[in-house]
From TrEMBL:
SUPFAM superfamilies: Periplasmic binding protein-like II (SSF53850). InterPro entries: ModA/WtpA (IPR050682). It holds the Pfam family SBP_bac_11. This is Putative ABC transport system periplasmic binding component. GO terms for biological process: molybdate ion transport. PANTHER family: MOLYBDATE-BINDING PERIPLASMIC PROTEIN, SULFATE-BINDING PROTEIN.
């Protein structure tokens, strides 16, 4: 069985796959990457039995094209802000931090990576209450990862860690579940986005081959859900 999965699932899913193989002796290979780019590969003919996306739109496209047998949600996430400890102390309020006119904000790439799409949704929420602030934030936002033409993140590093430590950005808006790992990195700090502004990212799977059903069912079991939650994801 070959799985294509959103890169944000790497830590949790690798553990779940390992547990599954130990229990069932069933061979699985997995490719991780931005869900939008992986989706295009599948649509263009790449072999894939189970597609795990950070959103609903890409699995839905496969269903509408007659490629997917079934799609269903399996876990949730939200957005979070990463910056330096110094900036987090200077701007403890998330809007003050994003609104600081001298700071560059890094994000992932919309359409190619759902995380970038979720940031666009966040900015729309900010714009409803603070249109001038939203415009200023947009002007300082750079789409630095997760796209067809963006640089690859070095192996073993988080996007926020790499971009901030190499001074490509002062702030990174990415997935909240990474905050557990970021808490162990002394050069980084996290800032919470309040629920009323945050985005609920619902991850969906698309089963493209009946051979994937056994793992799709395993992914929905309490043991697997517990591993996702341990890795910072949000139960549905």
């Amino acid at each position: 069985m070959h799985i294509m999965a959103a890169g944000s699932l790497r830590g949790a899913l690798s553990t779940i796959i390992g547990n599954f193989i130990n229990s069932y002796d069933y061979p699985i290979t997995c490719e991780f990457g931005p869900a939008g780019l992986l989706s295009q590969k599948v649509i263009n003919g790449a072999v894939c039995d189970l597609f795990l996306s950070a959103d609903k739109s890409h699995p839905m496209s496969m269903l509408e094209l007659g490629m997917a047998q079934v799609i269903q949600p399996f876990i949730g996430n939200q957005l979070g802000i990463t910056t330096t400890p110094q900036l987090a102390r200077q701007y403890p309020n998330w809007l003050q931090l994003l609104g600081s006119s001298e700071l560059i904000i890094g994000t992932s790439t919309p359409k190619d990576d759902p995380c970038g799409d979720y940031v666009v949704q966040l900015y729309k929420k900010i714009n409803q209450d603070y249109p001038q602030l939203a415009e200023n934030i947009n002007l300082r936002t750079r789409q630095l990862v997760g796209g067809k033409t963006t640089a690859s993140i070095p192996a073993g590093l988080l996007a926020s860690e790499w971009l901030i430590n190499t001074k490509q950005a002062d702030i990174f808006i990415g997935y909240h579940h990474y905050h557990k790992k970021i808490a162990q990195i002394s050069q980084l700090a996290t800032v919470v986005i309040p629920d009323e502004y945050n985005i609920n990212a619902i991850y969906y799977m698309a089963q493209l081959n009946s051979s994937a059903e056994i793992f799709a069912l395993y992914l929905m079991q309490p043991e697997s859900r517990g591993i996702f939650i341990e890795n910072g994801f949000i139960p549905l």
